[in-house]
Amino acid sequence: MTAKIKQIEADGVTISIVNYDSEDYMSLTDMIKAKDGDFFISDWLRNANTLDYIAAWETMNNPNFNYGEFAIIRQSAGANSFKISVKELLSKTNIKCLTAKAGRYGGTYAHKDIAFNFGMWISPIFQLYIVKEYQRLKEIETDQHNLEWDVKRVLSKVNYHIHTDAVKNHIIPKSKYSTDKQWIEYAEEADLLNVALFGCTAKQWKESNPKLSLEGSNMRDFASINELAVLSNLESLNSELIKSGVEKRIRFNNMHRIARQQLEILNKMDVLKSIKKQSDSTYIDEKKKLE
User: Is the pTM higher than 0.85?
Assistant: First the structure.
């Protein structure tokens, strides 16, 4: 698991969260610190209700779940001598709701559905803290996503008209195409920027992504904020070079070089962090002020 680590704090306990296969997994190793006394994750797994819950989740979410082997393990639940580790459960039943991570944030991680159940085993109040803080994290992430979408929308429009006006006023009058085909000039200039920045034309992207193309998407919809910032700069630059009558080949070479240079600089920055306040609770707090 090589995902970015996120963290929440529930009742004074810091809990790491990783995204694995597009799902959030919480650290049970962190969570068990909230339980008084010497308890281990294997103690939770001895519980028949725990195993039933895991089996239900796996049946719903994991087509490769080895229910037969799991049923054999379940029969032993409740016996004083019964004990099973996460590692054994993983190897014998191919469950995917639990996993292990090595390294700095190592330990046992569980899918959020299972982690909430584990929180209840620790204590009902602790489980409620976890649910509340997790919901808060998701709300913050949603606000950040919406902010990123707004920024990308603005950036994609910043210099678009400047660029198309340069084509209209300085290329169209000299166009080799008939009036009904002069749109090709606009497409060729747009692709000059696409190739300089993204390395392919709009047509090549559509051919490589037919499903997305049919849905009305294009390569710029999937560009990062940094790429759109550079694209905006290239549109402005290309419009000035067009006005100056610079040959297309020379314009492309300059823009390709500049695109690489600017991306290298911007990729070292966190553009969103420079736009939003430093507090991760900014968006929620602002909403509450309006209520």
Answer: no
212-223 pLDDT, tens digit each: 888 888 888 888
Q: Give the total number of structural domains in the chain.
A: 2
The answer on pLDDT for 39 being more than 60 is: yes
In this structure, the answer to whether residues 49 and 110 fall within a common structural domain is yes
Cα angle value 73/77/82 (rounded, 5°):
85
My answer on whether 10 and 126 are in the same domain is: yes
**According to the 3-state scheme, what is the secondary structure of 216-283?**
CCCHHHHCCHHHHHHHHHHHHHHHHHHHCCCCHHHHHHHHHHHHHHHHHHHCCCCHHHHHCCCCCCHH
129 shares its domain with 247: no
Write out the residue range of the structural domain in which residue 61 sits. Answer: 5-134
CA distance 29 to 19: 16
